[in-house]
From TrEMBL:
Residue ranges of every copy of the RRM domain listed in the record: 22-99
Keywords: RNA-binding
PROSITE patterns: RRM
Chain segments carrying region Disordered: 94-115
Single GO term (MF): RNA binding
Organism encoding this protein: Endozoicomonas numazuensis
SMART domains found in the cross-reference section: RRM
Protein name: RRM domain-containing protein
Transmembrane feature ranges: none
Membrane as UniProt keyword: no
Length: 115
């Protein structure tokens, strides 16, 4: 069987790694939190590119977590110090965001949801 050689640029892998390291998952948010609250809490660590509070599709209420993307990976790294800090009485969970792998959305018509 013939072998196939794959060449991957370490620079490209480094770019992908850096992009991942700029984005943080922030969990256990108070349900009344919004982008402004997170901006205020996290801007001390550096320039923020994007804040996305995840909301329920039907109620538009926060689902209690968000993603914050910094321009610089070193700023995101510094912001990890917010892990365990309280926001409106709730201890935040702050980690580097990871890609979801193969997660399926729940079917709205499944028997579990209609019970």
């Amino acid at each position: 069987m013939p072998r196939t050689r794959v060449t991957v640029s370490l620079e490209k892998i480094g770019d992908l790694f850096t992009m991942q390291q700029n984005k943080l998952f922030v969990g256990n948010l108070p349900f009344n939190s919004n982008e402004s609250d997170l901006q205020e809490a996290f801007e001390q660590f550096g320039e923020i590119d994007e804040i996305h509070v995840i909301t329920d599709r039907d109620t538009r209420r926060s689902r209690g977590f968000a993603f914050i993307t910094f321009f610089e990976s070193s700023d995101a790294d510094s912001a990890l110090s917010m892990d365990g800090k309280e926001m409106n009485g709730r201890p935040l969970r702050v980690n580097f965001a990871t890609e979801r792998s193969g997660g399926k959305r729940r079917n709205q018509n499944s028997p579990k949801n209609n019970a």
